[in-house]
Amino acid sequence: MKVLNEHIKNEEFKKIYLLCGEEDYLIKQYRDKLKLALMKDTDDMNFSCFQGSKINPIEVCDTGDTLPFFADRRVIVIINSGYFKSAPEKFQDRMEFFPDTTHVIFVEHEVDKRSRLYKKIKEVGYVAEFNSLDTRTLGIWINSLCKEEGKSISTEAINYLIEYIGTDMNQLKLELEKLFSYTIDKKIVEREDIQQVCISQATSKIFDMLDAIGSRNQGKALSLYHDLLELRE
Questions:
Q1: What is the rounded average pLDDT for all residues in the chain?
Q2: DSSP class of residue 76?
């Protein structure tokens, strides 16, 4: 993150970026930060986004070859293409000859670090891997979100929230938004508030549901089952 922040601050950009890893929240944050820094505004004319395994590589390359229209840069975002497992023939070679005004941002969940495309981006671009943050860093982030809402939260409550929800930042953000609504008339977010409105992490609920099934507690098992559906598990 530090390197990306420096690129954005100094406006010294690489032609190709790869954002990958298990922390979707940070990947999306930096995808949008890079796009905004590169384009300066909502210039849709010079922005293209391609997504999924059925991307037409010829269309991507034709777009990359095109000079920006009344702007300094053209930006292409490519999401979950699968090109880091099996890239189309000659795609990498053609991409190397994109004009300097074209910048490509890959956002990928699955990456084979042995692939030619990955190695090429390591060589000429920048690879940013976003993995789960440690508890201390997550705590600082949670505290900052609470301050933005004019609320305070103790270290004990932060640790309980992380233990209860897990370390996924998207899920934590959703649960914090629920907490902020629930505590709209309070200045302090407390452990009891977390217990009232937050959904515990899926792994805990799965084991609790299996225990309920084993003890033939139909009501509890169904309740936990619906919680897991809400978590998209």
A1: 91
A2: E
